[in-house]
Amino acid sequence: MTEVLFKVIVIGDPTVGKTSFVQKYVNDSFRRDYKMTIGGQERFTSMTRVYYKDAHACLVMFDLTQKNTFQSCVKWKKDLDQKCTLVDGSPVPCLLLANK
């Protein structure tokens, strides 16, 4: 049987819980202490094209307790659509994910 690899990216504003979400479902671990990661830092926005590259699907995450993070989801989706498409040129499929 041939193994198939899918790249699913998680995007959204800083502190919405992207890293915690991935850690929980990939490694079955959860840390309550917050540590900012490279994906959430504004100064690394120029690197998003590299992060998005070859994505098959996307989770756009927001924090239910921070209204502004929900409003930012449109910005994140537009950024993804401008920088990345599937091989056939269609948009990367996305799910909107509420957290916390």
UniProtKB/TrEMBL annotation:
GO molecular-function term, one example from the UniProt record: GTP binding
Keyword presence, NADP: no
Annotated protein name in UniProt: Ras-related protein Rab
GO CC field: late endosome; lysosome; phagocytic vesicle
Record organism: Biomphalaria glabrata
Keywords (A to Z) from UniProt: GTP-binding, Nucleotide-binding
Family: Belongs to the small GTPase superfamily. Rab family.
Gene this chain is encoded by: 106062459
Entry-linked InterPro entries: P-loop_NTPase (IPR027417), Small_GTPase (IPR001806)
